[in-house]
Design goal:
flat, 21 helices, two-stranded antiparallel ribbon, disordered N terminus, 72% helix, mainly alpha
C-alpha cells in the first residue's frame, strides 16, 4: 500500500497563472514598494519555498539601497559593500546555472526561463559594478569616497534582479506542479486498467505498478503540503491524502472480492464506491495545487456559527473607529444569520433540554442587546459625533459579551454531545456483530445490524456537523467536514461488504474486505477523539490563530502566600470595565507581532523574548474578555509575574546587545532598558502582593494589566530600534555571507546546488 507521509508547514499551491500576489513577508513588500517593483504579469507567488528564498536576498539588497541616504562612507564600509555586491553576483551566477539546466529539461518553459535567467545575470553584474570600489569616484579631501552617485541605476538593477529571480522561482514552482499533475494522470490511467481487469494474475501485475505510482504521488503531494502557506489549503490537502491512503488498501481488497465473486452485486457496488472516492480525492489535490476548480469558481463552503459570531463581533467593535461602518439593518441581518445557525443545535435530537433552553435564552438576550446597541448608535449618528459615546461603548461591550456567552454555550453543547457519543460507540459492538453475522451467513441479523450502523452513522455525522460550528479555525472546520464525509461514505461501504460476506460466508477475501472497511471506521472514530481535543484546545486558547503562552507558574512555586488565596473570577461588570484596557493591550500585541516579522532571524534571543511577552499579553487580553486559559484572578497574577520575569530577560538580552554597538548608538537602547527594568520590577511586586476583598482584587487586576501594557509598549518601541541597530552592526562586521546562500532555504531542491 502507498505510504502517505504527513505534511506540515503552510502556504498555497500555485499553477503560475493569474494575477501576481506579493510574498507576505513585510520586508519583501516594503522593499518592493520602495523600489517601485511592479507585479509581473502571469506570475503568482503562493508557496512558502519561493517566499523564503526571496527574503534573504531582499534583506541584503535593502542594505545596499539604504546606503544611498548617506553618500560618504569610510574605506572599511566601502569594502563591506563591495563584498556584498560581489557575493550577490556570484550567488546569482550559480542560481542562473541551475535555472538554465532546468530550462533545458523542460522545453515548454525553456524560453521564459532563459529570459528570466539572462535578466537576473545582467542585474547581478550591474550590482557588482555599482558596488565596485575601483569604479567609484576618487576620494575627497577628507579621505572619504562618494558612493551610489547613480541612484537610479542602483534601484533599477535591484528591481530587475528581484523580478527576474522571482520569475525563475515561480517557473520552477510550475514545474513541481506539473510533476504532480503528471503523476496524478498516471495513477488515473492505471486505475482505469485495474477497474477493467478480469483475472487475478493481471490484477496483481497492474496493482504492483499502481502501488509504485501511488508512492510517487504520495511523496510529491507530501512535499507540496509541507510547502503550503494557506492553512485552509493545507488542511484540504491533508484530508485528500488521508482518503487516498486508506482507499488504496480498500481498493485492493474490494477488487479482489469482486474478482473472486464476479456475479455478486454488493461486491460490485462496494468496489465502485472506492474507485469513485479515490477519483474525487485525486481531483481535489489538483484543484489545490493549481488553485482553480473545474467550474472556474471558488468553493463557497458552509458557514460555521463560530465564523458568523466572529465576523459579527468584529463589525460591532469596528463601530468604535467608524460610527457609519454598518447600518442598523445590516447589524440585524448579520445577527439573524448567526441565530439561524444556532437552530442546528436547538433542533438536534442529541442536545439536552437544559442546553437547548440556555441557547434559546442567550439568543433572546442577543436580540435585546442588539436593540440597545442600535439605539445608542442611532443617537450618536444623529448627534453627528466623531468619537464614540459612553453609552455606545457600554452597548458594544455588552453585545460582544453576550455573543461570547452564546459561543461558550454552543461549544459546551457540541463537545458534551460528542464526548458522550464517541464514548458510547467506542466498543464497536455493531461492527463486531456484523462480522459475526456475516461469517454465519445470517441475512436477517446482518440486516438488523446494518440498520443500527446506519443510525450510528447519522449520529456521528450530526456531531461532526455540530463540532464544525464551534471548531474555531478553518483547518479544523475542514477536518470536521472530512470526518463527516468519511462516516457518510464508509457506513454504506461496510454494509455492502457485510452483505457480500453474508452471501459468501466461507470466503476469506470477503471477510478480509469487511475487516478493512471496519478498521477504517474505527480509525475515523479514534480520530474524532483527537479532533475533539484540538477543538477544545483552540477554545481554551492553547493553539490556533494566536499562540498563547502556556508556561504559567504553578501556585506556590514562586510565592508561598499564593496558596492561601482563594481564586476568583471577574463578574460581568468588572469585565465590562476592563474591556477597553484589554482592547488596547490586544492592539499592542498586534503591533509587537508585526515588528517581529521584520526580523531576518526569528531565533534571535530578542525576538524569542518578544514573542513570549506578546503571547502572555494576549492571554491577559483574553482574560479581560472571559476567554482563554486564565480563568481566575489568581491565574492572571501568576501570568503577570511570569510576564515581568520574561521582560527582565529581554532587558538582559538588550543590554548584552548594546555592548556590540558604537558609542553613538548605545544611549538610544540604554534609555529604553532603563525604562523597562523598573517597570518589570514594579509589576513583580504588584503581582506578589497579597490582597483581600473584591475591590482590592479588582484594583490589583487593573494595575497588573496597566503595567503589562506599559511594558509591552516599550517592547513595541525597542524591537524596531534593535532591528535597525542590528543591521547596522551586521554591515560593519562584514556579515555579507548570507547572500551567498540566498537560495539555500528553499524546499525546492532544484536550487540547493547554488550554495557555494
Amino acid at each position: 500500500m502507498a505510504a502517505f507521509p504527513g505534511g506540515g508547514g503552510g502556504g498555497g499551491g500555485g499553477s503560475g497563472a493569474g494575477v501576481v500576489s506579493w510574498p507576505r513577508s513585510p520586508a519583501v513588500s516594503a522593499l518592493g514598494s520602495a523600489l517601485g517593483w511592479e507585479p509581473l504579469p502571469g506570475l503568482q507567488i503562493r508557496s512558502r519555498s519561493v517566499e523564503q528564498t526571496l527574503v534573504p536576498l531582499v534583506a541584503q539588497i535593502t542594505t545596499l539601497i539604504n546606503h544611498k541616504d548617506k553618500p560618504r562612507r569610510s574605506d572599511r564600509t566601502l569594502r563591506a559593500i563591495q563584498q556584498v555586491g560581489q557575493a550577490v553576483n556570484l550567488a546569482v551566477g550559480r542560481f542562473v546555472m541551475v535555472g538554465e539546466a532546468i530550462a533545458n529539461e523542460n522545453l515548454e518553459l525553456k524560453e521564459e526561463m532563459k529570459i528570466a535567467c539572462t535578466e537576473a545575470k545582467q542585474a547581478g553584474e550591474t550590482i557588482a559594478h555599482l558596488t565596485d570600489v575601483a569604479a567609484l569616484d576618487p576620494p575627497e579631501a577628507d579621505g572619504q569616497i562618494t558612493v551610489f552617485t547613480d541612484k537610479t541605476g542602483v534601484v533599477k538593477a535591484a528591481r530587475l534582479l528581484l523580478s527576474s529571480v522571482t520569475k525563475v522561482l515561480v517557473l520552477a514552482d510550475r514545474i513541481v506542479i506539473k510533476q504532480i499533475i503528471t503523476s496524478r494522470n498516471k495513477v488515473l490511467l492505471t486505475m482505469e486498467q485495474l477497474e477493467k481487469v478480469s483475472s487475478f494474475q493481471e490484477f496483481v501485475q497492474i496493482f504492483s505498478q499502481f502501488g509504485n505510482e501511488m508512492v510517487e504521488f504520495a511523496h510529491l503531494t507530501g512535499d507540496r503540503q509541507n510547502d503550503l502557506k494557506d492553512e485552509k489549503k493545507k488542511a484540504k490537502m491533508a484530508a485528500s491524502r488521508a482518503i487516498l491512503e486508506k482507499c488504496t488498501m480498500m481498493l485492493l481488497t474490494a477488487s479482489k472480492t469482486c474478482l473472486r465473486h464476479p456475479d455478486c452485486e454488493s461486491a460490485r457496488v462496494n468496489k465502485a464506491a472506492v474507485f469513485h472516492r479515490m477519483r474525487l480525492a485525486l481531483e481535489q489535490v489538483i484543484e489545490i495545487v493549481t488553485d482553480c476548480r473545474p467550474s472556474g469558481e471558488n468553493e463557497p463552503g458552509p458557514m460555521s456559527t463560530y465564523a458568523g459570531i466572529k465576523e459579527f463581533k468584529n463589525k460591532v467593535e469596528g463601530l468604535r473607529d467608524n460610527l457609519l461602518l454598518l447600518s442598523k439593518e445590516n447589524l440585524r441581518a448579520m445577527l439573524r444569520v448567526v441565530l439561524e445557525h444556532t437552530e442546528d443545535f436547538t433542533d438536534s435530537a442529541y442536545t439536552s433540554h437544559e442546553n437547548r433552553e440556555h441557547i434559546l435564552g442567550l439568543s433572546k438576550q442577543a436580540k435585546m442587546e442588539l436593540e440597545q446597541l442600535v439605539s445608542a448608535l442611532t443617537y450618536a449618528q444623529n448627534q453627528k459625533r466623531r468619537e464614540i459615546t459612553d453609552d455606545l461603548e457600554v452597548a458594544i461591550l455588552k453585545m460582544c459579551q453576550c455573543m461570547n456567552e452564546l459561543h461558550r454555550e454552543l461549544h459546551r453543547t457540541a463537545t458534551s454531545v460528542a464526548e458522550d457519543l464517541i464514548k458510547y460507540h467506542s466498543d464497536h459492538l455493531v461492527l463486531k456483530a456484523l462480522k459475526i453475522s456475516g461469517a454465519e451467513g445470517n441475512i436477517e441479523a446482518v440486516a438488523e445490524h446494518s440498520c443500527k450502523l446506519s443510525e450510528q452513522k447519522e449520529q456521528l455525522v450530526e456531531i461532526c456537523h455540530l463540532l464544525r460550528h464551534v471548531s474555531g479555525t478553518e483547518p479544523l472546520e475542514i477536518t470536521c467536514l472530512h470526518a463527516e464525509d468519511t462516516f457518510l461514505v464508509t457506513g454504506p461501504q461496510i454494509i455492502s461488504a457485510a452483505e457480500t460476506l453474508t452471501l459468501h460466508p466461507s470466503s476469506k477475501i470477503a471477510k478480509e474486505n469487511l475487516d478493512v472497511f471496519c478498521e477504517a471506521w474505527e480509525s475515523q472514530l479514534s480520530d474524532m477523539s483527537l479532533l475533539l481535543r484540538e477543538i477544545s484546545d483552540v477554545f481554551e486558547g492553547r493553539r490556533g490563530e494566536k499562540r498563547v503562552y502556556l508556561s504559567l507558574p504553578r501556585p506556590g512555586k514562586h510565592n508561598a502566600n499564593l496558596k492561601a488565596l482563594k481564586p476568583t473570577r471577574l463578574d460581568n461588570e468588572e469585565q465590562t470595565q476592563l474591556g477597553r484596557l484589554g482592547l488596547e493591550l490586544h492592539k499592542l500585541t498586534t503591533r509587537v507581532d508585526s515588528e517581529m516579522e521584520k526580523w531576518e532571524d526569528p531565533e534571535n534571543e530578542i525576538v524569542r523574548h518578544g514573542q513570549s511577552l506578546s503571547s502572555m499579553a494576549y492571554s491577559m487580553y483574553l482574560f479581560t474578555r472571559g476567554e482563554g486559559l486564565l480563568k481566575t484572578t489568581q491565574d492572571l497574577f501568576q501570568q503577570a509575574e511570569a510576564f515581568a520575569t520574561e521582560g527582565l530577560k529581554l532587558a538582559s538580552a538588550l543590554l548584552s546587545f548594546s555592548n556590540q554597538l558604537e558609542d553613538d548608538d548605545k544611549p538610544l537602547l540604554l534609555r529604553e532598558i532603563d525604562r523597562m527594568v523598573p517597570a518589570c520590577q514594579q509589576l513583580q511586586v504588584t503581582a506578589r502582593t497579597l490582597v483581600q476583598g473584591k475591590t482590592a482584587t479588582f484594583t490589583k487586576v487593573d494595575t497588573c494589566i496597566h503595567k503589562g501594557k506599559y511594558i509591552l509598549d516599550i517592547v513595541a518601541q525597542v524591537l524596531p530600534l534593535s532591528c535597525k541597530l542590528l543591521r547596522k552592526v551586521s554591515l560593519h562586521l562584514g556579515k555579507w555571507g548570507k547572500i551567498c546562500t540566498f537560495v539555500g532555504g528553499t524546499p525546492l531542491s532544484l536550487f540547493i546546488n547554488c550554495i557555494p
